Amino acid sequence: MNSSGYFGTKDKLPPLISLRAGPVVCTYELGKLRYIYHQDEELLRMVYVAVRDQEWNTIPYSIEKENIVNTQNSFSIRYTALFKQKEVSYRAEVELIGNSDGEISCSLQGTAESDFLRNRIGFCVLHPIDSCVGQPVEITQPDGKTYAGTFPDLISPHQPFLKIAALGWHTRTGFEAQLRFEGDEFETEDQRNWTDHSFKTYSTPLRLVKPVAIKKGDQIWQKVVFQPVSNLPFVSQVKIQCIDITEHGTVPFPALGLARNALTLTPQDISRLHQVPFDHYRYTINLAEVDWIQDFRRVYADARLLFTSLELVVEFGHNVWQELVELVTELTAKSTQISSILVVPLWDGKNSGQFEMVYDVLKKYFPAIPVGYGTQQFFAELNRNRPTHEAFDFVSFSVNPQVHAFDFRTIIENCEAQAYTIHTAQSFVDSTKSIHCSPLTFRVRDSAYAHDPRLHTDFAAAYMLLSLRYLAGVSQLTLFETHGENGLMPAAGDESRRKTFPVFDYLKQIKLFKPTLLGLTHSSNPRCCDCLLLQNEAGEKRYYVINFSTQKCKIRLNESDRILQLLPESISLWDGKEHRVC
Questions:
Q1: From CA 227, how far away is CA 98, in angstroms rounded?
Q2: CATH: 2.70.98.10, 2.40.50.100, 3.90.1150.10, 3.30.70.330. Which one for 6-228?
Q3: DSSP assignments along 2-49, one per residue
Q4: Can you give the pLDDT at residue 375?
Q5: Is pLDDT of 347 > 70?
Q6: Could you check whether the bond before residue 205 is cis, i.e. omega within 30 degrees of 0?
Q7: 3-class SS at 59?
Q8: pLDDT digits over 459-489, tens only?
């Protein structure tokens, strides 16, 4: 499974440099501090510098003049980061210092080298979900006043903490720590809204007018200081010998579908797609477009050839009633081929009372078709605009792991965050309503950066398998697209036409296994190894065990005496009898 790059890709996994600041340990990776720990408890997930343009694009950077001094109990790192993309050119002089008493100081001197518009420039601090959820927090405001808060369990729709000059919190093991911020006003958001597995404290409050015009030569200075308040004992971290993966019940396996794209489906494409789970075919109708009926009829014909139903996403324009009449007229003779209808937009202030009317009309003519409330965008949009009525049969939102960052380690970490979207949706949606995820993609859709070549590798297959695990509880899940650069297989004319991508190959295996149940597994170290458990009607189990480490790894399944040794960067299959690398 290995190639010249990490986990079947062409890209290398950046090395981690181990650092120690007295009783606190962390790692350094390409300008970022990651995984700040005391003993076995993670205190901070990451500290890094970000430049976001007026469209919230994260500007890539390169590092120059990097100087690392790493001693037994302290460290100092200095480097220059050059952020460049299109009109943005920005230079940041960064200093990261760890002292023997556990204090870590991060400072930034930034200078604009061009004129551009920005939404954010400065430090971001990520707080780990597992060790922070439910823990008390004390916020000191810039004026010196304080207030108390708590890291939320369910995903907070809006920022849980505002106007931060200092943030103190207690860890699960009883230690007290503090962050101090200088150079700007900071606030904290719940990044699980975008399926990032962290809370984020950042500068430039969202309430302020943006974008901000930056002129060449403009400068900023910021400083973030992490400091243990309690006396932390100086101990060595225990090296993990074996990772435990345990089982905690099952839920029904969801209906799986694929999204349509604009490329023509050939007979070979259709034949291949019969080999993967294909319970529905996602298609978006924009009722404001004059030729939507002709396009819909082509898609309807494709769905019949694919032996599947249609998951319709219906976008209404300004003439809602006229468009609704046209929609009902067109669907009447084709309704048996439709599995669900998601109606968007839902929270346009001008149409705030019209969703119920649309729902009532659709249910009158198509009572057997579930009609949903939701968004084609992130969970944040659904969470911030929760339904205030019962006129819906399901809620829906999309998921991808690369809203804020694009590196391998972040994508791996973010798989776990998907489960919180389900738990939070269940808290405000009646149990009689279902939850759909549509679509699951590998990157943000409908942007210049929508394609990621890693989608065609084993790494993306591992992400897909774990997404099945962590989205446990959805009744319907749409995966990627049928074919093309964002699909399961190449488009016609592609040089690799005779091949399919690993995501296709694993879905083919899943269809042959015919799962009916999805196991709720837990890994003691999911950043290293994790697992998808499937069970079929005959009671047979299939474990897809993923080793993200670049080293061999030992795991123990469900507290048994059986120890499996996994190859580096691999997906292994265990059926209770035989263990093999896929």
A1: 10
A2: 2.70.98.10
A3: --SSGGGSSSPPPPPEEEEETTEEEEEETTEEEEEEETTEEEEEEEEE
A4: 93
A5: no
A6: no
A7: coil
A8: 999 999 999 999 999 999 999 999 999 999 9
Residue 244: CB atoms within 10 Å: 16
Cα(200)–Cα(380) distance, rounded to whole angstroms?
Answer: 15
Cα separation, 475 vs 496, whole angstroms? 34
Report how far Cα 530 is from the mean position of its chain's Cα atoms.
16
Domain(s) of CATH 2.70.98.10: residues in the chain: 6-228
Cis peptide bond N-terminal to 345, omega within 30: yes
- DSSP calls for 155-211: PPSS-SEEEESEEEEE-TTS-EEEEEEESS-EEEEEGGGGT-SEEEEEES-TTS--S
Contact between residue 90 and residue 212 where contact means Cβ atoms under 8 Å apart? no
Q: State the DSSP code for 506.
A: H
Cβ atoms < 10 Å from Cβ of 84: 16
Enumerate the CATH 3.20.20.80 domain ranges in the chain, comma separated.
257-491
DSSP label at 568?
T
For residues 211-237, one letter each, b for 16 or more C-beta atoms within 10 angstroms of the residue's C-beta and e for the rest, the string is eeebeeebebebbbbbbbeeebeeeee
pTM of the complete model beyond 0.90: yes
Mean pLDDT of 116-123: 96
Is the separation of the CB atoms in 105 and 123 below 8 Å?
Answer: no
Query: Which CATH number applies to 257-491?
Result: 3.20.20.80
pLDDT at 497: 57
CA angle 364, 368, 371 (to 5 degrees): 75
Q: How far apart are CA 147 and CA 140, in angstroms?
A: 7
Considering only 264-278, 336-350, 420-434, which range has the smallest mean pLDDT?
336-350
Query: C-alpha angle 217/218/219, rounded to 5°?
Result: 110
Residue type, 134: G
Asked if 324 and 361 touch (Cβ cutoff 8 Å), the reply is yes
Alpha carbons 304 and 310: distance in angstroms, whole number = 9
How confident is the model over 386-392, as a mean pLDDT? 90
- Is it true that the peptide bond before 142 is cis, omega within 30 degrees of 0? no
pLDDT of the residue at 491: 86
Report pLDDT digits (tens) over 501-517: 999 999 999 999 999 99
pLDDT of residue 257: 98
